[in-house]
């Protein structure tokens, strides 16, 4: 993780984030001042950001929304107070309504972003200045420290070429918290086709099979959200293993970028998970990111112990081999 320190100072009324990166200052500056790159890490996992406005000039504004997996939306606005490329910019950060107006009772923070050389890479130092100790406590109580740490953990991937950073690593599983796991896999193919492979039953049956020796016996997907779905698998020709399946509801479809769904093991009393699929394309390759939210750490550990990562890797390798290589 790039974050090396997050501290709050009730006397100085500040919260300071320090992070270091294996990239030059100019590259770090560019990801913070290009809204399309900023969107890839500004929101924490499961809360991707969208910048609808970004006026990089003194007096200009930026408007953003972070979209949660259950339909929640957290909106903010920046007013640029100072810009000193490539080393520093300063904004007023405000919690806003859908129309861009400030939300009553929510604090406004003055934030300074500084970028400097650090060894062979660079260091980012962000200081948020609050108007009162109560405002600082309010933001901390909202989970800003852990949210910032998780959001910044996504920045390394943005700073580097996607193929260079992810190709050949296979399926990667990261435990983010007691209830949250992130799974990533780079596949060599366009996002539109990868989206279709996750939403069209005739394509899903060709690759979403886990280890060799299994077949998908049922695959029902909705045309739009919200809508129910169902998958089922069985061993081929009486092979080892018991048939099983999953059912749930697709709650969000934003083709070809994002799909959120509940997932329950059919015929069991296991609690459902919430699965947040996100697709990002760069230079003809697509990064698949799945954020899985479990009800508790015990359920998380039980599922991970089943060999889920290996099964997903077998499926993703088949996706590249059967669909994307055509």
In short:
The protein is of the alpha+beta class and 326 residues long. It is built from ten helices and 16 strands.
Overview of this structure, please?
This protein has 326 residues and is of the alpha+beta class. The mean pLDDT is 95. The longest helix is centred in the last third of the chain and has 17 residues. It folds into 2 domains: 158 residues, 2-Layer Sandwich (Alpha-D-Glucose-1,6-Bisphosphate, Chain A, domain 4), CATH 3.30.530; 162 residues, Alpha-D-Glucose-1,6-Bisphosphate, Chain A, domain 4 (2-Layer Sandwich). Strands 1-2-8-7-6-5-4-3 form an 8-stranded antiparallel beta sheet. Helices cover 25% and strands 41% of the residues.
Describe the structure using short key phrases.
single chain; alpha+beta; Alpha-D-Glucose-1,6-Bisphosphate, Chain A, domain 4; eight-stranded antiparallel beta sheet; 10 helices; 16 strands
Topology summary:
Elements: E1 3-9, E2 14-21, H1 25-33, H2 35-38, E3 49-54, E4 61-67, E5 73-84, E6 88-95, E7 108-118, E8 121-129, H3 133-141, H4 144-152, H5 155-159, H6 162-166, E9 172-175, E10 180-187, H7 191-199, H8 201-207, E11 214-220, E12 227-235, E13 244-254, E14 258-265, E15 273-282, E16 285-293, H9 297-304, H10 308-324
Antiparallel strand pairs: 1-2, 2-8, 3-4, 4-5, 5-6, 6-7, 7-8, 9-10, 10-16, 11-12, 12-13, 13-14, 14-15, 15-16
């Amino acid at each position: 993780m790039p974050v090396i320190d997050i501290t709050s100072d009730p006397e100085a009324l500040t919260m300071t984030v320090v992070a270091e990166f294996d990239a030059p200052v100019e590259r770090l500056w560019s990801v913070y001042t290009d809204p399309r790159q900023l969107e890839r890490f500004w929101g924490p996992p499961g809360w991707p950001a969208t910048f609808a406005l970004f006026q990089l000039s003194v007096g200009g504004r930026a408007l953003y929304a972070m979209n949660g997996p259950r339909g929640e939306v957290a909106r903010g606005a920046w007013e640029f107070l100072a810009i000193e490329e490539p080393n520093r910019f300063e904004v007023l950060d405000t919690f806003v309504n859908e129309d861009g107006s400030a939300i009553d009772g929510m604090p406004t923070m003055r934030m300074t972003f500084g970028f400097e050389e650090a060894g062979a890479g660079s260091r980012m130092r962000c200081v948020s200045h609050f108007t009162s100790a109560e405002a600082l406590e309010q933001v901390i109580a909202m989970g800003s420290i852990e949210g910032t740490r998780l959001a910044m953990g996504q920045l390394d991937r943005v700073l580097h070429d996607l193929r260079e950073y992810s190709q050949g690593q296979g399926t990667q599983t990261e435990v983010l918290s007691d209830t949250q796991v992130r799974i990533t896999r780079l596949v060599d193919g366009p996002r539109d086709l990868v989206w279709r492979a996750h939403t069209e039953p005739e394509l899903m049956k060709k690759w979403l099979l886990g280890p060799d020796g299994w077949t998908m016996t049922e695959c029902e997907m909705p045309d739009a959200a919200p809508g129910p779905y169902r998958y089922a698998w069985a061993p081929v020709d009486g092979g080892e293993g018991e048939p099983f399946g999953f059912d749930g509801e697709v709650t969000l479809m934003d083709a070809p970028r994002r799909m959120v769904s509940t997932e329950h093991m059919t015929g069991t009393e296991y609690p459902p998970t919430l699965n947040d699929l996100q697709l990002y394309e760069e230079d003809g390759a697509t990064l698949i990111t799945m954020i899985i939210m479990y009800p508790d750490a015990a359920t998380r550990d039980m599922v991970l112990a089943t060999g889920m990562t290996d099964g997903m890797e077998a499926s993703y390798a088949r996706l590249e081999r059967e669909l994307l290589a055509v």
